[in-house]
């Protein structure tokens, strides 16, 4: 199987790395060769975070080069724009309809782009979902990342993997059922 490249991008505290680790665990349990790398940046201060997951029959490197990502999943809109150059031609972008203003915007030194989705639509095949709102409706905004994981699973055709079991084995017991519901919600969105 040819190597597939998934780039997860977001802001510190959104669970980007946790989603990538769950994805990696599920892929490995299904027999894929998987490599993962992560960049934290100033993640504890609300800075950019990215996780790269590559899987296939034999993966040589954990690094996704510019222009080679099959899919970019952005947990925040501005991050989708920041990493769009990593998308391969005919790749797909899934964007959480969420704005988290960086410090320069908060203090008035910069402006948050008013039409990021419009700009992204000019550049790629984009699916916008409101994972944060769905997570709130489920009672816990922290499952936004698992909703987005479900969107990745469906978009990449990985729904044959037993994600309920992966979640049961890797999430605190009191959050298992909520996360299992969240991943299914994400799958239904794509």
Automatic annotation (TrEMBL):
InterPro entries: IorB_Oxidoreductase, Pyrv/ketoisovalerate_OxRed_cat, Pyrv_flavodox_OxRed_cen
Domain Pyruvate/ketoisovalerate oxidoreductase catalytic: 12-188
Key words, A-Z: Oxidoreductase, Pyruvate
Source taxon at top rank: Bacteria
GO molecular function list: oxidoreductase activity, acting on the aldehyde or oxo group of donors
Pfam families reported for this sequence: POR (PF01558)
Keyword Oxidoreductase in annotation: yes
Gene3D superfamilies tied to this protein: Pyruvate-ferredoxin oxidoreductase, PFOR, domain III (3.40.920.10)
Statement: the UniProt record of this protein carries the keyword Iron-sulfur: no
UniProt-recorded name of the protein: Indolepyruvate oxidoreductase subunit beta
Source organism: Pseudoramibacter porci
Taxonomic path: Bacteria, Bacillati, Bacillota, Clostridia, Eubacteriales
